[in-house]
Amino acid sequence: MRTWNPSLVAKARLSAALALTLGASLSPAWSGVPSGESFLEVRLDSPGGSMEHAPVHSQIGGTCYAYAAGLAIDTWRAQFEPSQTFRRINPFELALGHGQLEYGQFRWDGTVDGGSFCATIHYAERAGICTLDTFPLVDDDGDRLKKLLKDIEALRVRFKKIPFWRRKKPEGLAIATQIRTRLSEFTHYRDGSTPLPDTDTILRALHMRKRDFARTLVSDPRCKDHRNHDFLLPGRCHTDLTHFEPEDKIIRRLEEGLFAPFSQPLAIAYCSKVLKEGKNYSGFSHDLRDLRIVNSTQCGGHVSLISGKRIHPTGGQLQFLVHNSWGTGCDYSADWQCENGKIWVDADALARNTYGVMQLE
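Given the sequence above, the corresponding structure tokens read:
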């Protein structure tokens, strides 16, 4: 049974539709930022803000997209479903499943690296969400889980090379036993909170499609019967590709998003090297005359949430607050001010390295 207030959600959606309609009908010069407020500081993590209780995660591998998507869903629910506390979706579980419904096949190579923010949102809407209360992911799981997945994938590949009629013979059974041993090192099996799959279950999983294999062994034992389908999200997750957009237009887009009716964070796809190398770094060009394309591998392709803006107290330049997922440390360029893993970055430097802007609408 839903516990959210239907009238509140209906009003929120009506406000969103009205804002979008008005925005489309006004002059292209309309900024969406209330008059006189373009220089005010905005912090969604301030007391009473939509991200007041949002943690700074330490992501596993290249799963930034899932950490950002999970936090965006948590933030939306905390603001528009008043009975919901900040439950904290398990972002790694989202990473395991995100691609299968959006793209028709799951891209899993043993690392779960790389993915789409909006595809992950759509997966959560269709498949349901699993919270950290149900499927805990403790801090020391990160490196262990990355190695576990790579090892299990290597064993799965070996198993697939065995002729079908010999897979339940000693050679195939030995691989299933090795997978069971590797699974026992993962926290929720090791601590006894979840029964370790038997050999027959592992053999069945080994015959599944690649996209279903990891979820069956890693997350489904905890999440399958406890997924929360009883939650509400807005009508869509919208992506603006900004490869060739002028920097000032990207800055305006981020400002508008922070002043949207719901005051929800935006997600950006960007070259994360700007965080380490500082204000002069440029991962690619926004100039249509420059045919360089974004090489996200070389420039540190990354997804983070934007949760605030301000005018630098001494320099006077506009800055955005990047809510990152690399832990609460501050190993960033001296050009930026860091607050427990959240970083104030100059707007022009960030826009120069941004190639996508996403937001729940």
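The first strand starts at residue 42 and ends at 43. Try to locate this feature in the token string yourself.
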